Amino acid sequence: QLQASGGGLVQPGDSLRLSCVASGASFRSYTMGWFRQAPGKEREFVAAINWSGGTTYDSDSVKGRITISRVNAKNTVYLQMNSLKPEDTAVYYCAAGRGVIVTSRRSESAYDYWGQGTLVTVSS
After folding, report:
1. Residue 121 CB-density burial (10 A; 0-12 exposed, 13-18 middle, 19+ buried)
2. Rounded CA gap, 83 and 1, in Å?
3. 64-103 burial code (b ≥16 CB/10 A, e <16)
4. In whole angstroms, how far apart are CA 56 and each of 2, 23, 45, 78, 122?
5. CB 38: neighbour CB atoms within 10 A?
6. 107: Cβ contacts below 8 Å, ≥ 6 apart
7. Would you say residue 25 has pLDDT above 70?
């Protein structure tokens, strides 16, 4: 089970850190991903991190502004978002997948478990 939190209403240029806490003893073996779904759009990949800290980002939309990290001892993955823009407004979902190869990290089908989502609204 995944529980995402940290969303809210922020202004353009602000920062926000999302958290996703996973239940279960095998968290450290899972690749964790963040996806987002903006109003009226399909869900899209944001970032992923494997068990050892290897990361993948959607370079076009978040390059240089978003950092994914994890603390295995806390069963938690984070998404630090800086210089937020109105186009970052979306529901952000965390996901967990086992045995996710690098080339599949951007694919929703690679993940087995999904959190409920947390809403991020960027508006002045």
Report:
1. middle
2. 30
3. eebbbebeeeebbbbbebeebeeebbbbbbbbbbeebeee
4. 20, 23, 10, 14, 24
5. 14
6. 45
7. no
Note whether 86 and 38 are within 8 A (CB).
Answer: no
As a whole number, mean pLDDT of residues 90-115 equals 92
pLDDT tier at 60 (50, 70, 90 boundaries)?
confident
64: left (phi over 0), alpha (psi -120 to 50) or beta: left
| Overall size of the chain counted in residues | 124
- How far apart CA 77 and CA 6 sit, in angstroms, is 12
Phi, psi of 28 (to 5 degrees): -65, -20
Q: Where are the beta strands (DSSP E) in the chain?
A: 2-5, 8-10, 16-22, 30-37, 44-49, 55-57, 66-71, 76-81, 90-98, 113-114, 118-122
What's the rounded Cα separation, in Å, for the pair 15 and 65? Answer: 9
Rounded to whole angstroms, the Cα distance separating 51 from 67 reads 16
For residue 82, the model assigns a pLDDT of 96
